[in-house]
SpoIIE family protein phosphatase (Pseudomonas poae), 239 residues
Amino acid sequence: MSQAAARWRSAGHTRRGKDRSRNEDALLDCPERGCWAVADGMGGHRAGDVASQSVVSSLASMAGHGDLDQRVGAVRRCLQEVNRQLLNTAQGPQDIIGSTVVALLLEGDRAACVWAGDSRCYLWRGQSLYQLSRDHSRMRQLMEEHRMNAQQAGAQPDARALTRAVGAHERLHLEVLELGTCPGDVFLLCSDGVYQTLDHGELGRALSLDTPQHMLDRVFESVLRGAARDDLTAVVIQR
């Protein structure tokens, strides 16, 4: 393990939702290479679990060489190739085999978040919680373009539809955010089965615990006290 990677500890877990017949989420927890990811297969579409596993398996097989900029480029190319493969697997334009993705890369004191869809990346710093990723969803689009509030946008019939995902369109548009890291930082990657249930206060209380495993346990305990109908996946990374 490199010295840079050794600064970070992590824990990850995924669980099938109480109303689901199979888990369509997948995760990557690879602290020795400074790489983590969460993928959520598109619910209601054929083989969502296949899509999310394809995303994670492809990211896991990447070489971990190069600086952060080179690694971000490698993630972009990797996900574009998975996008092409999933489109080729689909049996026509109405047959979507897709997945969200949110990936975190760490190198020294730098971080990069790469995503498409509505799986999220949060940062817990200085007793404050920040949502780093921006959902690629119809709800977010309604809020930004039509100036609706969250309640108004969420009431629309297509609010949960994704505007970007791996395997959904011929060209995959990824978003990238880079930032510096500080001692004590905690990152959370999660699928919507987590954040649709827990508000910022509950997430913050979980991420204020002492170890990634304790944080992760608290997140899952809190979600599973409720209906937990959707699959839930989370990865916690602590410096």
